[in-house]
Design a protein that fits this description.
single chain, mainly alpha, globular
């Protein structure tokens, strides 16, 4: 059950990040968004390039911020082509997400230990998987509590400390850039499902109990869920406010 829960929350993180990225790109030019997220864009692009090379794809004209309306990183001439059908697309989608997740782990370890430690006290049941309607609404309530906890932790942190500010900036960059790159959303779905299956198989093969195998990963997963959902809530509020102002101005 815990591996299924992990897969579910990974889907939440990745597609909340995709929603945030698209909302930001609807408010300002996508080139500006990807430039502001440059550390995350760099990590995601490196993972994408490595995935292309592993699967026999061609990498040329690599650009972190493409000079067009999308502003997406460019690592080829267009459509993703590999010599490994389906699996190649999954690997290419998986490596950018893994790269960003590993970056968040090291950033949290060296810059954000106090914030991550405070977040571990959040009353969030890591085993909770919304398999029924009551559990679904219970999960929503706990998620709001989790996001509230993150806001309180940030407010209580020393925001005059450059390390805290750098940690928050880098975490936002890495979390948002876990969103699938253009044209590889199906590959991202396959990558997340494959990760959950592989984690389950490794746990079964090694005979490691689920709790001990996943215990060290859950605090980071919970933190990433809180960050992605907080960004999504703020982005939705900002988008609604901008469209409201535009509607009022156009009405005049």
């Amino acid at each position: 059950m815990e591996y299924a829960s992990l897969t579910f929350w990974m889907l939440v993180i990745v597609f909340a990040a995709l929603g945030v990225h698209r909302l930001w790109s609807s408010l300002v030019q996508p080139r500006v968004v990807n430039s502001l997220l440059l550390p995350g864009t760099l990590v995601a692009t490196i993972g994408h390039v490595i995935g292309m090379l592993i699967t026999g794809g061609t990498v040329n004209n690599t650009t972190l911020v493409k000079d067009d309306a999308t502003g997406e990183p460019q690592t080829g001439s267009g459509e993703i082509k590999t010599r490994v059908p389906f699996v190649g697309t999954v690997i290419i989608a998986l490596l950018p997400m893994v790269g960003c997740a590993v970056a968040i782990y090291w950033i949290a370890r060296y810059l954000g230990s106090p914030i991550l430690a405070a977040m571990e006290q959040a009353p969030f049941d890591r085993m909770l998987l919304p398999t029924s309607l009551p559990l679904f609404f219970a999960t929503l309530r706990e998620l709001l509590t989790l996001v509230e906890r993150l806001v309180n932790v940030i407010r209580q942190s020393d925001l005059r400390n450059w390390q805290t500010l750098l940690f928050l900036y880098l975490v936002v960059c890495m979390t948002v850039r876990m969103a699938p790159l253009s044209g590889n959303v199906r590959g991202a779905l396959g990558a997340i499902l494959l990760t959950g299956v592989l984690a389950f198989l490794i746990g079964q093969a090694t005979g490691t109990a689920e709790g001990s195998a996943m215990g060290s990963a859950w605090p980071l997963v919970t933190f990433c869920v809180a960050v992605s959902l907080l960004l999504l809530i703020l982005s939705l509020l900002a988008t609604g406010a901008v469209h409201l102002v535009r509607t009022i101005l156009n009405a005049k």
